[in-house]
Structure formats: C-alpha cells, structure tokens
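Sequence design from tokenized structure. All designs in this work follow the same two-part layout: the structure record, then the generated sequence. An example of the structure record is given first.
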C-alpha cells in the first residue's frame, strides 16, 4: 500500500538559516507509515481505502552536528521542539490486469492534513502557516503476483513512481508550512520475503529528487532553493503469533540526504539531513478485508532535522 509519511520538522528551515546553513528543507516523505507485509496489498486486487493517524512528540530540532537547536525567546535561548498530528487518507486501486513484465497496474492517491505545535511557542525565530492541507501524493505502480512455494507465498513486490504535487498550504513569509511548494519525485521498491509461512521480512526503498522552490522562505534572501537528493527506507520483520489474526514484530526507518541542498544554484555545506528510528509494531487482521496496523518508533542520530517519538495507527479496508 503506497503511502507517504511526513517529516517531523515540516519546513523549519528558518532556525538553521539563522546559523548560516540551509537545512530542514526536504519535503514530507514516508517515514514509518508503512511496515509489515508491504510487498503487496493485504487482500488482493480491488479498491482500498486507508486511514492513517500519526502522532509525533518531543521532536527536538537538531543542527548539522546532531546538537539541539536553541531559539531566542523572552527568557533567553531555549531548546526548540516540535509536535505533529498527521492524518492521511488514501485511495488505492489494484487491478488484476498485467501491463508490463507481468506486473499488474494500479494507482494510489493520498490526501494529507497536518497540525503542528512548537515549543517554545513565543520564540522569535519561527512562524507557522495556519493552513493544514499538505501536498497531494499520487503514484502509478506495478504489483507482481506472489512467488509461491510448497507452503504458501515466498516473495512479493511492487514498484511505484510516486510524485508529490505542490498543492499544500504554503506562504513564503512563514518558515513552517504544511506544503513544500515544490514538485518531488519519490519512486520506491517495496517487497516482502516469507522466511517461512509465519515469519516475514519487508522493506520499502525510496529515492527522492526535488525540483527548485522559486518562492522560498523570505528569510533566505534568495531567488530559489533546491533540497538535495535523498534515499530512505522503511524496514520491518514480523511473526504470526495467532494464525490469520495477529502478527508482532519490529519496524524502523532510515533517511540519508546524499547531495547538498542549493541556494541560487550554489551547494550549501552541512545541509544534509539524516535520521534513524526503530521500535515495536503489530498487525491485526480484523477480517480478510479489514486490517489494523500499529507502529511505534524512537528516533536517534538526527542531523539537520528533528529527533523524537512517532506513533502510527493505520486502518485498511478492502472493497470486495
């Protein structure tokens, strides 16, 4: 199921800009929204509707060295933290018609809403755009049928050409926005390996490319900015403890920006973002057509982005 997450510091570039480096400029991507059995839709071809709720707490903003960022307030410079409440509604159609190399075509559409809260709220460095509509995500994909073994499926996978469209609320006067104001291309390969009928390993590997922002945050005093390229991966392993009902496991994600961000076409040193997270998760099959995912993540090693705790709840319904 293709869904894209939201990075913890939506566009808090103003904090790092004030220290001479462009950072916190990657768009929202899938960090922890997808996990177990990710290599294929859980109920076969057809129409799916999914609802995601994610709660991000105590996201301490970090600089290029991984140290806390501090913002000016009436009480002096204080550590900056960000909380987020995220909602994604996804519509996905998986056909039963092979299109290319045996892969069956499909398409998904995701509508995001985001609400954020800054601590301290009376700092002088940041302001937030009141709009909460994020960038719409759309992606055509090819899903291959599972490769079967003597005791059931052995491997299933999918390739999607994900695109992030600059449709979210954005204002160049505010460093924190729900929308990124850029087009991004974020294709991925998702797969699930059945080690045995009850034990699975899944991953979703993304590449991220971002177009130029020709109306960047005015604090940059620049004509245009461009976030660097990045790779990011969601990974998980789960064991079926109750047949056809409950899977328990471990899930995580990792993001690495692999090229520097740019201002007016010039690369900016120490602008790369990085974060790693891991935690427990569960998948409960309410019925053959209804599935409930829960995932928890604790981040570490963050550079040029926030580091906090992320809780994800996902409900998937298959119309049959």
């Amino acid at each position: 199921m293709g869904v894209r997450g939201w990075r913890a510091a939506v566009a808090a570039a103003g904090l790092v800009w004030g220290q001479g480096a462009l950072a916190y400029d990657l768009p929202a991507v899938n960090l922890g929204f997808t996990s177990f059995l990710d290599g294929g839709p859980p109920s076969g071809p057809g129409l799916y509707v999914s609802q995601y709720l994610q709660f991000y707490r105590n996201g301490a903003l970090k600089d290029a060295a991984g140290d806390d960022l501090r913002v000016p307030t009436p009480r002096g410079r204080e550590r900056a933290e960000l909380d987020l409440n995220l909602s994604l509604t996804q519509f996905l159609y998986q056909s039963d018609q092979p299109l290319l190399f045996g892969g069956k075509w499909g398409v998904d559409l995701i509508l995001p809403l985001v609400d954020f809260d800054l601590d301290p709220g009376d700092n002088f460095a940041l302001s937030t755009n009141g709009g909460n509509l994020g960038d719409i995500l759309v992606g055509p994909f090819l899903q291959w049928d599972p490769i079967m073994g003597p005791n059931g499926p052995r491997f299933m996978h999918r390739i999607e050409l994900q695109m992030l469209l600059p449709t979210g609320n954005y204002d160049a006067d505010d460093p924190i926005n729900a929308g990124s104001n850029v087009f991004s291309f974020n294709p991925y390969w998702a797969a699930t390996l059945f080690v045995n009928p009850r034990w699975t390993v899944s991953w979703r590997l993304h590449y991220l490319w971002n177009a130029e922002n020709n109306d960047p945050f005015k604090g940059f005093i620049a004509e245009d900015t461009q976030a660097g390229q990045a790779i990011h991966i969601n990974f998980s392993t789960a064991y079926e403890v109750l047949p056809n009902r409950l899977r328990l496991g471990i899930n995580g994600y990792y993001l690495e920006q692999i090229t520097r961000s740019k201002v007016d076409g010039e690369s900016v040193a120490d602008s790369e973002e990085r974060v790693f997270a891991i935690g427990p998760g569960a998948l409960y099959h309410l019925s053959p057509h209804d599935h409930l995912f829960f995932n928890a993540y604790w981040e570490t090693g963050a550079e040029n982005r926030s580091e906090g705790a992320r809780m994800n709840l996902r409900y998937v319904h298959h119309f049959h």
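Confidence is low (pLDDT under 50) at residues 1-22. We note this feature because it recurs in several other targets discussed in the main text.
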